[in-house]
Amino acid sequence: MDDNEGTRRRDGVVIPDAGYGPGEQYDNGKKERGVAGEDEVESIEKIFASKGRIETKCALGRGVGFPRPSLSGRIDMTSVMESSKAIVGMLMVQAFATGLQLLVRVILDDGTFIFALMTYRHVVAAICVAPFAFIFERGKDAKLSFKIWVWLFFNALAGITAAMSLYYYGLRDTTATYAVSVLNLIPIITFIFAIIARVEALRLHTWAGRAKMIGAVLCVAGALSTSLYEGKSFYIFHHNISHSEALVKNVKHNWMRGTLMLTGSCLCYSTWYMLQVKMNKIFPLKYWTTMLTCIIASVQSMLIGLCLDRSSAAWKLGFNLPLLTIVYSGALATAATFCLISWAIAKRGPTYPSMFSPLTLIFVAVLEALIFGEAIRLGMVLGTILIIMGLYSYLWGKRKESKAVPRQANLATVDV
């Protein structure tokens, strides 16, 4: 037999003859070269399809197995669509967070009483979360004992009342970009707390443990660089003083006090994450937990606020920007964000939402420089880069570790 007889080619390369697939050229030595038809292969596929592999017979009676093109195409498209939905959902979360940071920055500079803001905000949040609790968790067996109420009280105190009030005071003394960059330290502080409490081990003999430790060191270095090194200041566009003062009042920053407030907020949030381990065990209804925590936090904020300022002007609401911020933060930054994060964790895993958190920092930095005319300091840029690198190093190690040792998924973002 001639060497060219009974051979098939793909892109000019001769392939051993074991049956033809769609789009493969053939040359039988006598007929003209052609292309195997799709209809021929599909008719054979219908007969010989089995478990995602297709055994086809050619005219010479030989068989070959190859993946089913149409089936694999549908699977790929489904995977792409699911991935796209998760990405869009997390981008929405970051957009909500960015809008909230800028709105809060404006109203705090305008003199809004922080505890009044927190009181009204969490009333709105509880109202928005309530339908999910009554619809999705109706009839589930979970009794509200005295022990659970005590845990809910401390859950609200650490995760909302203390953490959020310290964050808002720190935001007022600094900038939104700086405040958001400090928040990226929360996973690292939580990791350190978990090691101290022996909830987690270092595991430095593994790549995952080394990555988490490197991430922690980079984040601490970034935080020190951001707070201690100022460097050269520059603006995205020409600094327009009248434009920036029209949006926010000329408030003098107190970086040292603001940094201490923001650090205290991170410590409270990390403590709150540690409380979630116990909270999820004794009261696993996440929507009910969120709603009741918001109600308790609202009462706590009201009592503390009344002790600090009882004037009607501090608590008065009107049809203005503070009211818009309250509704926005309760409906979108709390209720909608919680639902999107819960859905993303169920689909993609517990570390997935945290991977998008640095985007809020980038969005806030750019918009704050554009809208408010804030200067971008070199120390903040270098520190932010170190924090983002450290965060992704930690999340990579955490993801590797979670694959080896499956753990219960917890929310990995902070609602501020």
From TrEMBL:
It comes from Punica granatum (Pomegranate). GO terms for cellular component: membrane. Belongs to the drug/metabolite transporter (DMT) superfamily. Plant drug/metabolite exporter (P-DME) (TC 2.A.7.4) family. It is a multi-pass membrane protein. It comes from the Eukaryota. This is WAT1-related protein At1g43650-like. Residues 1-12, 27-36 have a biased composition (Basic and acidic residues). One of its GO terms (molecular function) is transmembrane transporter activity. The lineage of its organism: Eukaryota, Viridiplantae, Streptophyta, Embryophyta, Tracheophyta. Its main location: membrane. It is found in: Membrane. SUPFAM superfamilies: Multidrug resistance efflux transporter EmrE. The keyword Transcription does not apply. The keyword Transmembrane helix applies. The gene is LOC116215040. Residues 1-37 are annotated as: Disordered. Residues 101-220, 257-392 form the EamA domain.
